[in-house]
Write a structure and sequence with these properties.
The protein is an all-alpha fold. It has helices at residues 3-22, 24-33, 37-48, 52-59, 68-90. The longest helix has 23 residues, at 68-90. It starts with a helix and ends with a helix.
Length: 92
């Protein structure tokens, strides 16, 4: 996979995590009520309209990553990836 492909993949993952953080009450409810990991993954995918890798990332996040300071860093990383992709899109 090329550099842009990796950047797109990382950005998709960061967007999935950001969406989960914004909807954390619903995410935690799904996790709490799911009888097993497979069900939790399926329900997260439906709630957030994301793929399997994003669901796994959310389900396996450390609780400390739900803190505001970590979320700020996530947004900075996402912005950096967006700028990288924009610069590469304008180059021949």
């Amino acid at each position: 996979m090329n550099d842009n492909g990796q950047a797109h993949e990382q950005l998709d993952l960061l967007n999935a995590i950001r969406e989960a953080l914004e909807r954390r009450e619903e995410v935690f409810q799904i996790i709490d009520e799911a009888p097993d990991e497979s069900t939790a993954l399926t329900r997260l995918a439906e709630l957030l309209d994301i793929g399997e890798s994003g669901c796994h990332a959310i389900l396996h996040m450390q609780v400390s990553h739900w803190l505001g300071t970590w979320r700020d860093g996530l947004e900075e990383k996402a912005e950096s990836l967006r700028l990288h992709l924009e610069r590469n899109a304008t180059q021949p």
